[in-house]
Specification:
Elements (H helix, E strand, L loop, with lengths): L3 H8 L11 E2 L6 E2 L4 E5 L10 E5 H10 L2 H6 L4 H6 L1 H10 L14 H4 L1
Antiparallel strand pairs: 1-2, 3-4
Helix pairs in contact: 2-5
GO molecular function: endonuclease activity; hydrolase activity; nucleic acid binding; zinc ion binding
Keywords: Hydrolase
Protein name: Alpha/beta hydrolase
Length: 114
């Protein structure tokens, strides 16, 4: 069963490259295969956010591994702000060398764990 948010996103027109139906990840600028598509709330739902955007699953997990919900709501509530963070820049440079369908487990930052 598909959740309400995912159903709504599927019904909306995705960001498209030329005439193909490839959705582009706003974090790493790579094409997102259907198996790796995750909906991310730009401002967390717990902080009143409603807007979502499709990201690679690995990019989405990395964001939540590095930042708290409060940080996401206050400072990192758009793709540009996320891309400008030094740790995200390191991650983006690394993930750009991987195939579009690549996925690896992401671990929480020690700063977030403590």
């Amino acid at each position: 069963m598909i959740g309400k948010i995912r159903q709504k996103l599927i019904s909306q027109a995705p960001r498209v490259i030329s005439n193909t139906q490839a959705i582009i990840c706003p974090i790493c600028d790579r094409s997102i295969p259907a198996s790796q598509k995750d909906a991310h709330h730009l401002i967390p739902k717990s902080k009143g956010g409603r807007t979502t955007e499709f990201l690679h699953r690995i990019c989405h997990r990395q964001i939540h591994a590095l930042f708290t919900e409060t940080e996401l709501a206050n400072q990192f509530n758009n793709a540009t702000a996320l891309q400008d963070h030094p740790e995200m820049q390191r991650f983006i440079q690394w993930v750009k060398t991987k195939p579009d369908a690549f996925y690896e487990r992401v671990r929480k930052s020690t700063r977030i764990k403590n």
